[in-house]
Amino acid sequence: MPSSSNAEIFRWHRYSTISELEAAAVQAIQQAAQQAISHRGQFHIVLAGGTTPRRIYQAMRSADADWSAWHIYFGDERCLPVDHTERNSRMAALTWLDHVAIPRGQIHPIPAEKGPEAAAADYTRTLSGIEQFDLVLLGLGEDGHTASLFPGQDPGNTPDAPAALAVHDAPKPPAERVSLSANRLGAARKVIFLVTGESKRQAVTDWRNGENIPAAAITPAGGADIYLEAGLLGGSEP
Ligand code: 6PG
User: Fold this and answer.
1) For the chain, which terminal residue's Cβ has fewer other Cβ atoms within 10 angstroms, N or C?
2) How confident is the model at residue 237 (pLDDT cuts 50, 70, 90)?
């Protein structure tokens, strides 16, 4: 059973199938956008990398949205050339962003091709004008990492942490990355983790047992929602 503080911060949403989880995520993204745009005229969203969000991004192509009010950021990026097939920004562009009318100046890729330190410094400046994201999407790695915050490395979960961190020696290739800090990722009105795949079972178990995995360092004031494939919960856990 999760610890009491764990249960207060993390809300676990179980879905019988990956398709149901993806549909729920698309709905949540659209709801967050409509709310932000009606209240503030803009929607600032941070995209997750990896493979889990791919079909969600593809489904977002056909969303009925006021794209002119959307501002896109990235939770992390691999230090690869801009058009490298393994770039998170390229995955998002091919599956979604190249197919909708978000003004190009409102899509803010992490300039990770500059290398970890230079890109982290640049992106920290880019984010300086954004106090709170409206929505942050995150994945979960097999070892409990999220974005490019890996076990044994500084998650940047103190108020003085820079918004973007240079990452070296990442256990998930490539070794050099840039990641938003845990503190910056948690400065959001809504945070949704997207967790599918048998390989995530142990990380989910550790998380729910209150272990200090990097994902657990993302503690937004309003708590975080974890969209989870129900099969990843062992036994008949509540
Ligand atoms: C990355 C991602 C990373 C990812 C998890 C889950 O750049 O690799 O940002 O944090 O979200 O590793 O990856 P999958 O979705 O591919 O399982």
Assistant:
1) C
2) low
Q: What is the mean pLDDT of residues 158-178?
A: 97
What string of DSSP letters covers 148-172? Answer: TB-TTS----STTS-SEEEE-S-SS
Which residue has the CA at smallest separation from atom 5 of ligand 1? 141
Phi and psi torsions of 163, nearest 5°: -65, -35
pLDDT > 90: percent of the chain: 94
4-196+217-231 sits in which CATH class? alpha beta
Q: Which atom of ligand 1 is nearest to the CA of 197?
A: 17
Give CA–CA dist 109/75, Å, rounded.
10
Q: What distance in Å separates the CA atoms of residue 166 and residue 156, rounded to the nearest whole number? A: 11
Question: Which residue is it, tokens 């992390």?
Answer: 76
Q: Which of 74, 87, 146 to mutate to test the pocket of ligand 1 (most atoms within 8 A of CB)?
A: 146
Assess whether pLDDT exceeds 80 at residue 8.
Answer: no
Output the CA–CA distances (angstroms, integers) from residue 203 to 123, 150, 161, 231, 234, in the order listed: 29, 12, 25, 13, 12
List Cβ neighbours of 124 (8 Å cut-off, separation of 6 or more): 162, 163, 164
Helices (H) and strands (E) in the chain, counts: 7, 9
The H-or-E segment that residue 55 falls in is: helix 54-60
Neighbouring-strand partners of residue 189: none
